[in-house]
Amino acid sequence: MSEIPVTSKQDVRDGVIAGLVAYTLWGVLPVYFKLVGSVSSSEVLAHRIIWAVPFGALIIYFRRQWPDVLLALRHRQMLLWLVASAILIAVNWYVYIVAVQTDRIFQASLGYYINPLIFVLAGVTIFGETLRPKQTGAVILAAIGVLVLTVSGGEFPWISMALGISFTAYGVIRKRVVIGAMPGLFIETLVLVPIAIFWLGWMTQAGEAAYVSAGPELKGLLMLAGPVTVIPLMMFAVAARRLTLATVGFMQFLAPSMQFATGIYYGEQLTTPRLICFACIWLAVILFSMDAMRTRKPAKA
Questions:
Q1: Computed from CA positions of residues 78, 84, 87, 92, in that sequence, does the dihedral angle turn out positive or negative?
Q2: Which of 6, 105, 144, 188 has minimal CB crowding within 10 Å?
Q3: To 5 degrees, how large is the angle CA 28–CA 88–CA 202?
């Protein structure tokens, strides 16, 4: 049996490193939003959109992806889909910022735990796919967890559902658009920039923009919203090209696990209903992962 070429080993190693960087950065993202907690959620969102554009443009320049951007801008149907995905990702970002700033990091992490399960349900309802037994069990367990939290905990996890559903809808739309991750994100933020600038201008006139009176440290943190948004996505794109879907699928649970840990760090209460809910979700994740291993194993042989 011949050895795997060094280049292939290098690709896998680079992919693993890039994936770990991406999911680790997403995992500690609550820390960033806590650092800018004195700024309103809507203003943080506006800065995230605005500063992502120049930073994204720089990366696209070095990766020579401007032809992809120009092609998408000239393609009417592709541009319309990207406008729709831009709205969805803006909703997702805003809900996440609100979750962190209102001490509901547990709900945010729950949203990304159940995201793969919502993708499965989307496949059934939109694309007519059939649920396999372990997938069915995972969905039922997740539903039980949400029900327990709603009935016994007295809180419907609307943040979790909003994050999971908005990101699933975003993913479904992006599957329809043949464009790379970076060019796609650049166009999405470019579409949102006029709204973000208008909103920031209105807040400035109303005397509500924290950026105007902020010190150098806070201004620097708000400008950092661009790299914070773009770098993980770029790393994820590198990982997705170099690793199998199964590997990327397992790594995706790293981010919500780290978010869960940051929730504990910031003193959120892990009540019994929340613990039962997360236990159901973790079991669902195990079932989901076992199913992914079983179905993808023959493809590697």
A1: negative
A2: 6
A3: 85
